[in-house]
Amino acid sequence: MPLRTQWQVLSQVLTGLGESKPEMVQAPYRWHFDRGYGKLLGILISQRYEPDSPSTNGIMRIVVATSDVPFVTGGHLTLARSTVQALIDCGHQAAMLLTPQNRFGKLGRAYAATRCYDISSDGLGRKIDQVITLRFPSYALKHFRHVCWLNHRMREFYDRWQSLKPDLGALKGTKESIRRTVIKAMDTYLLKYNVTKLYALSETIQNRLQRWGKIKSVVLYPPPPQRNYRTDSYENIIFTVSRLHSLKRIDLLIESFRHVKSKDMKAVIMGTGQEGQKLRAIIERYNLDRRIKLIGRCSEASLIDHLARCRAVFFAPLREDYGFVTGEAFASRKCVITTEDSGGPEELVRKSRAGYILPPDPEKIAEKLDELAGDKDLAEKKGRCGFDFISKLTWEDTVKKLVCS
Predict the structure, then answer these.
(1) Quick one: 274 exposed, middle or buried, by C-beta within 10 A (0-12, 13-18, 19+)?
(2) Helix/strand/coil for 94
(3) Range of the domain at 155
């Protein structure tokens, strides 16, 4: 096929994916791109197989799929495991499937590999009744009963693009701009026409879907992971748990302790990541090592124990998709200190009135830390508001919405 014709067909696909059904793309060209994303788009617009009748007795065999990369643990894995457990608790058969993700610049192959994966039956030949996908590119899976509970698309091509592009340089920036156009077109098609239902994990994600793609979705907040949360005390400790990554902004908490007047208030930071050395250096620079502890990765029992004993939880990532930390704090009857630009955490604190929503300013954060340090009853009161809010989110109700009849 001549190059000019290829570009014409590619343009037709890119302009039509967001508005048209796949039948509007000329069938003779679906499988005849020479290479690259043209061929990938052909794969993506191939037809899904016909449905089979669901399993008898209301028990369904369901796969929960999310993408993954080695040595990185994120909230999507917690969500996937919790969803699988909830499905099993409700009487269904469920398993988790990890689809490839690939690093930035190599996403196309991951979409193609995911799209070609046969999810119609399991390893024993038994049919799979439904698939629930959570993030890119797992929602490229083909299944007639396909519910996407979207954690996020690749944020580097969406809300983080403007801050990322200047660092790419002219040549790589141009190349990634083209790739971004194609990936966005594929995402729009897949989330509009490849899924039976589309839920967004938060209003933050729902707004991104509407802004980039005009994709309609319904917000479905997940309950906290199934753990034995409890409330032991309200010690003068601010607790946070997260990957130590720049987007999680743990440095805001550390910097705020330079301005905290209460000498009894301390902070405990749980987690590991690439920012670990930098955060330790900040602590040492300001002689805060007696007040702030970095305890690394800990067990689930240790996580629950710290939530049970702390006075409040600090969680202020940048435009977070949802943030399980907020819900887990509420389940432990602890209020949350977050920021105006934190995304999901800001939503939950605003709706529950179980904490503080502040500018991302260490001095403003320090003022609220001092307020909580001097008023244990206030921390308890706000913690009860959080518990009342999160108790209304149950896995039983969530499963009813996720499972297709």
Answers:
(1) exposed
(2) strand
(3) 56-219
124 shares a domain with 190: yes
Cα 140 to chain centroid, rounded: 17
The total domain count for the chain is 2
pLDDT in tens, 208-217: 999 999 999 9
pLDDT confidence tier of residue 196, bands split at 50, 70 and 90: very high
* Nearest residue to 243 (alpha-carbon basis) of 346, 348, 323: 323
- CA gap 153, 335 in Å, rounded: 29
Q: Provide the pLDDT confidence category of residue 85 given band limits of 50, 70 and 90.
A: very high
Task: Mark whether 263 and 129 lie in a shared domain.
Answer: no
Backbone angles phi, psi at 144, to 5 degrees: -70, -35
Residues 247 and 337 occupy one common structural domain: yes
Rounded to two decimals, the pTM is: 0.84
φ, ψ at 314 (rounded to 5°): -100, 125
Q: Are residues 215 and 344 in the same domain?
A: no
Q: Confirm whether 143 is domain-assigned.
A: yes
